[in-house]
Structures are given as structure tokens and as C-alpha cells.
Input
Amino acid sequence: MPKPIWTSRHTWVAAWVVLCAVGIATTAWLNSSSAPDPQPEKPITAECAEYIANIETQLAEAKQEGEDDGVLAFSRSTVGADDCGDEVLDHFGGER
Output
């Protein structure tokens, strides 16, 4: 008498469940065991630190005036100025 088709399906489903459980457990173990080393902070130039302080001041003023809608525009037109884009993103937690 041939095996019922359900037994064969149950075997496949059980195999997939075991493989998925092993994969999830392995992923969780790898994520917990390999914490990235903290990156040393790059020194920020005085000009960029001043620029970030200026942005924080403008954000605080906008918040006090009730204009805290989350959108502010900044421009910088100084010739020969440092490019502080990376420092601003790092300071304010921008994702890349």
C-alpha cells in the first residue's frame, strides 16, 4: 500500500519549519555576537562646529516662535568654506 500523500506533505512542512527555526536562531545569534566596534569620532573643524551651533540656535528660535513644523532651509554661500555636510548629518543623526 503506497504512503498517503498527507504523510509526505507533513514531512516537507516539518522540514521547512525546522530549517526556518534554525535560520532564525542562527541569525539572532550572529547579530548578538558580532556587535560592531564603535567608530572613533572625527575631529570637527571650528567652522563646522560654529555652523552646527548656528543651526541649533535657529532650530531653538523656530521652536520658541511656534514654527516647529520640522522643515527649515539653510544656505551657505561662503567661498572656500569647509563642506560640513557630513558633520551636520552625523550631529543630527542623519541616516545615509
User: Anything to note?
Assistant: The mean pLDDT is 78. The chain has three helices and no strands.
